[in-house]
Sequence to fold (341 residues):
Amino acid sequence: MVLYNLLMNQKIIVVIAAYNEEALIASVVAGIKKHISNVVVVDDASGDRTADLAKEAGADVLEHLINRGQGAALKTGIDYAVKCGADIIVTFDADGQHKAEEIMRLVEPVAKGEVDVVLGSRFLGNMPNNIPFLRKMVLKGGIWFTRFFSRINITDTHNGFRALSRKAAQTIRIKQDRMAHASEILDEIAYHKLKFCEAPVTISYTNYSMQKGQSSLNSIKIVFKFILGKIMR
Amino acid sequence: MIVPVFVTIFVAFAVSRVFLRFRSGDMSLGEFLFWLGIWGAIEAVVWIPKFLDEIAHQIGIGRGIDAVVYGSVVLLFYLVYRIYVKAEFIEHEITSLVRKSALKDKEK
Fold:
C-alpha cells in the first residue's frame, strides 16, 4: 500500500523509440497503458503506419523528420518526458520483447529514492532458455567490454528496459545516435557516479524481435563507434 | 621538360582558384598561406628534384620519393580523421535539428 501510494505520487513516463514497428506498436502501447498512463512514442521516420497506430493506441507521439537511430530517438523522448515533468522515465523496446507488467517492479527502487537508475537484466532471476547462442556470446562479450572500458560491473549491457530518475535523465548525455547509445548510457552512469542497481526482466525472443533486432555482427560496428565517441568526448 | 611545364600550368590554375577564394572571403589568411605553401612545394619538387632528396636526407630518409610517400600516408590519415570528426559533428547537428523540430511540432 505504501509503495502503491509512492508510485501514484510520481509521474512515470514510458519512452519508446520506434522504427517501422506497425506490426506490434499498438499492442505494445496498449499493454503498457494497462499499467502506466503516460506513454511517449518517438517515431524515427518510419515508412509505415507506426506513428498513426501508436496515436490510436493512446500514445503521445513525436515524429523525427528523418531517421536518426534508436539512441537519437530515445534522447528525443527522454527530453520530452523531462519537459513534461516526469519524475521517472522508463525506456522500453517497441518490438514486444519486454513485459509491461514488469514496469512497476523496475521503477520501485527509483521511486523509493534508493537509486538513480535501474537497469533491466535478462541474466538475473529466471534465465530465458531460448537466447540464441551467438547473441549470448555477444552479450557476454559486451559485459567484459563494459567492465574494461566503463568500469561498471553489470550482468546485461544491452538491455533497453531501464528506469531513470529525473536527475539521471538530465545528467546522462546520449550523444550516440545509433546502437552504441546503450554502452554510452552505462559509461555515463559510471562517469557521473550515478547510483544504480539491476533488476531481473524477461526478454521474449520471438521471430519478429530477432528479425527486428541487431545482428550479432553489428556489435563490431557498435564497439568501434563507442570507442571513437569516447576518444572524441 | 614536358612534365614540369604541365605541372606548372596546373599549379598556376590551382593557385588562381585559391587566390580567388581568398579574395572573395571564403578562405582565411591561414588557409590561403597553407595552400600556397603546398603548391609552392610541389613546384619546387618538380623543378629541383634534388631539393626533395636533400630534405629527405636531412630527416634521415634515404630517397626523396620515400619521404613523399611517408608524408602522404601521414597526411591522408590525418585528413581522414578530420573528415570523420567533421562528419560526426554534422551528424550531431542534423540530429539536434530533427529533435528540435519534433519537440516544436509537439508544442503546437
User: Anything to note?
Assistant: DSSP finds ten helices and seven strands in chain A. The two ends of chain A are 45 Å apart (CA to CA). Residues 2-128+159-177+192-210 of chain A form a domain with the Spore Coat Polysaccharide Biosynthesis Protein SpsA; Chain A fold (CATH 3.90.550.10). Residues 23 and 50 of chain A are 8 Å apart (CA to CA).
